[in-house]
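User: My collaborator and I are trying to settle a disagreement about how two of our proteins should look. Neither of us wants to argue from intuition anymore, so we agreed to look at predicted structures for both before our next call. Could you fold the first one, then the second, and keep them clearly separated?

Assistant: That sounds like a sensible way to settle it. I'll keep them separate. The first protein:
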Amino acid sequence: MDFGALTESVERLRTALLEPTGLNLIEDVSLDLPNGEDGEAVFLKLVLWSYVLWFEACQPVGRHLMSIVRNASPEDQKVAARAFQDIQNLRTFHAHNLRESSTGDQHKLSQAKAWLVENGATKQDWAACVAKLTASLITALNILRNHWSRLMESPEDAPTAVQALTEALERNWEPYLFDGIVDEVASTLALTDFDAVKYRTVRLDDWRKATALFQDRMSAEAALRRMIHQELLAKFGAIPS
């Protein structure tokens, strides 16, 4: 299976963003695409690669591009969103235990199974599944690039669009960015083996609201560091003298 068209669509989107902003906003995917394999293994590797591409390597710029598409063409936005949701459902179906008691889990399960039935998995036609997933992802990435490129072609719209993207990136705080601050503060308070990720998961919404109060990222980070320090100090106390 040749994934040249898929990698080309990624590069074209990366270039479309790089040229007007000077920023590489789509990271490389550390996973390898399937190579020289057949059957279900190819499909599963493609699902994982696609998930990492969109939900990790393409963020946070991907969400901003989706908002641009939504405003310009709700129909295009639905097509792209469907492709990304299918990837998430398929990855969740193959990588997680989906509980019967969870409505959300059961919805993802039914959606993933429906996609697999519709695209040939029940007949062991994994080549058809790979082709469908690849084509859907290429279409979604091309939708994002086309709408961004149209803005860049307009002398009136391009500067505003680039500024809006830059400001959105400045305001964005991915969850993992908080972890380092939590680790540093926990270390100063001698909290050994402290689970920063678990604590961040509980406090994430409040921290994002706090960072949104500041105009620049440096001020937001300094204030957030003080906020987290006060939280942990109040919960666990100071280092015993």
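The second protein, kept apart from the first:
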Amino acid sequence: MKQGYRVFVAGYLFLLFSSFTGAFIKPVGFQKSASIKESDPRKWDGIERGEIDIASFIAGIPFAKKSGGTIYEVEPERKFNETIRRGQGDCSNMVFGAAWYLDQHHVDYAIVYLLHEETFLEGKAHTLLRVRYLIDGGVRRGLVDIVGGGLPLSRNRYITIHDLEGGGLLNLNMRHLNSQPTSDDTQYFGRFLDQAEIGYVPGWQVNRYFKFIRAVYIPLGSAKVEKYLYDGLAVLSGMYPTVYVKSIADLYGRRLWMRYYFLTSAWIMRSALFVMPWIMTTILLRIRSMRRAKRLMNSTIRMRG
């Protein structure tokens, strides 16, 4: 084989290995970086269809005493069973479990992230649900803190996504709708919020992601392996929900280079679907050619002998 081809193959395989290694070491950073895009917050709406009796829904969650830790169930219905029916999981798990329920009942919603520059690439953020809900005899379009078991308040007024964008929320508390919530997450609405970027995920993209997972899902015996594998496939195939933020530069700050590293890694992984078959075909053809040449040489030697 030509020297240039060998250098290309060696270099490409090194980049592919480095990409997979980076994604394995920081799976949340890879996932978030590959799915985050900038968008005007004024476009973050589209929640018009249906509503949920939020008091009954939250009250029905049997929050486990030791819940709050991450669960790795990736299949949507299984995640719903672990989170909403059994009360397990962290804020993100709980919201995605609730999202499955809302999809099944044809209720519009969105997922809202509070993303802090210093922690979001490690998976340390807070996740809320935005939905139309019934409360006190009326319908509101607002935020629900599932893992906190209630509705966040500022000065005794229900917090909206526009309040999150403005920041500076005072006199924070939670209207609890369950006697055993996992935690009081008003800590995320004070100083943390003032230093955080708001991430917005449209419900229809979450629904598309659920359909993709259910279409490809095969049990592998390990929830953690399934989570990384199927979410990775969703990212690489463009089926993972997009997280829209107002400013990517403000979100990443000094770690903006990590976004470009993970984006490049994602494209290198996608290219493997085309490059690796070409490399393997070329190698196999080369081996076949060498075998033919060897047989021809042996045949020539026997004829001369």
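Some points you might bring to the call about the second protein. The chain has two domains: 1-34+256-305, 40-245. Strands lie at 36-38, 52-53, 109-116, 126-135, 138-144, 150-154, 157-158, 172-176, 196-202, 243-245.
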